[in-house]
Amino acid sequence: EVQLQASGGGLVQAGGSLRLSCAASGFAFDDYCIAWFRQAPGKEREFVIGVRWNAGSPRYADSVKGRFTISRDKDRRTVYLQMNSLKPEDTAIYFCAAAPRIIWSSLALPSSYDSWGQGTLVTVSS
Known about the structure:
This protein is mainly beta. The protein has strands at 3-7, 10-13, 18-25, 32-39, 46-52, 59-60, 68-73, 78-83, 92-100, 115-116, 120-125. The strands form two sheets. Strands 2, 4, 5, 6, 9, 10 and 11 form a seven-stranded mixed sheet that branches. Strands 1-3-8-7 form a four-stranded antiparallel sheet, with no helix packed on it.
């Protein structure tokens, strides 16, 4: 069974940094895509950043380019979202997601993913 567990959220001041973790298990990591989405109060779920597990360049939402970075630790079977220069607009519940064989044009679509973590709350104060 595919399981994703997101953690690392918290309260930070604007300009600060935070690293989120997503521990993954129960599926073949080869050919899988891992992504982070977020949902702010009163907003729809929004793509943040995603990458293929074994290869490829990350895809970033325009709002986080230059500030957020995705990485993976294959031994720990964990993906990370490093968030720098945080803004109040980044406040949201952050979800990790995974699915196999997602084409580039569909990487940012929530409907492309069949496994989701529980979400972790990030609050950025102004």
